[in-house]
Here is the input.
Amino acid sequence: MPQCRHVARAAVSGVAATALLALAAPAWASSTVPLHSAHQGSTAADFQQQCADSRFADRPADHDGWHFVLPGGPSAGGFESLTLTFDNGSDTVDVTVPDTADAYPDALYPAGQNGSRLIHAYLFTPAGWTLVDGSATISGQGDRFNLSHTCAGQPTPESPTPTPTTTPESPSPTPTVPESPTPTVPESPVPSDGTGGGGGDDDGSLPVTGAAVTTMALVGVGLIGGGVALVALRRRRDGITFTS
Here is the structure.
């Protein structure tokens, strides 16, 4: 009889355990939940900031810190992975948490010191990015996950693009037009007066020398004297003729 009671108790315990597993299995099945719609389109600078969070201690100064949390209690299980979409100002970037292969530090953390459910997710992105949307795979059942708080970084100032310096072009030299030579008018030859004198003066008159003037005076005196002699001679001849 004791052996029969032991077998009966074992059978009851087995049925109870099977029932508990059947009830628990649906509650812990993996599911995908979206980012809370009120947190879509958020920037770290415009959201509730808690830079004193110890998980942000290693955040680079030019990066934004993001903290996501999974609400819902034990039935929600914990994060298995998150896929987040950001707008960096010129394009969209998809970031997976956890993923040690990407360029953005991220990690999942449990609920507490002794907790086993991963309900905290941290991520660092370059400062100024906008959280567009996201989804999370969780180990239980839930309806969403939330952005809990942020810590905004300071964007690295961009170096100004140097303005290209335009080298002024040297002006084309103006071609020098050679001046037309002034035609030289040959001087008309001065006719020689037979006296062996030199060329004429600027006014075209012949040079007068002392010797030439004296000669001309003597010639004139000689002619006058010759004329007087001829007149006297003629009168004398006429007188002789008249007397006869």
In short: The radius of gyration is 66 Å. The CA atoms of residues 76 and 217 lie 155 Å apart. Confidence is low (pLDDT under 50) at residues 1-27, 194-202.
